[in-house]
Amino acid sequence: MNDCIIMVDDDPEDIILVKTALKRIGLPVSFLSFPSGELLLDFIASQMSHSHREAVENRVDYLVLLDLNMPKMGGALCLSKLRKAQSFNQLPVVIFSTSDAHEDVERSYEMGANSYVYKPDNIKELEKIMNSIYHFWLFKKHRWLQI
């Protein structure tokens, strides 16, 4: 079983910070990033198109960290498309945004976000957040599978 965190964000500095935090805390996850929602949807569609046998043998559990404010396809539209697509609607999506506006949080949950996390401004806090996200969304699956 493999775990992969996919970050969708148009800010390369935010991507580097998350990648650095994951590396520093040593979580057993792969990390991918895309600068737009369109590229995320293309990637997920290509992963879903593998044969069923390949999918079972090489199963990857994905978690998406999705920024709201991006050019072209923003996070809200990307989330909406993910939730409308039958094969993507169970994918855990954590909105990871610099916005702490109540309207953004509320709208994200209404659209099907699994969680909403405010981006911290320091690496130590980011490490704590990434550790919590991993243990809540990915690690617990492994515990249940081992029973």
TrEMBL record:
Coiled coil: none annotated. The keyword Phosphoprotein applies. The modification 4-aspartylphosphate is found at residue 67. GO terms for biological process: phosphorelay signal transduction system. Keywords: Phosphoprotein. Residues 4-134 form the Response regulatory domain. The keyword Phosphoprotein applies. It holds the Pfam family Response_reg. This is Response regulator rcp1.
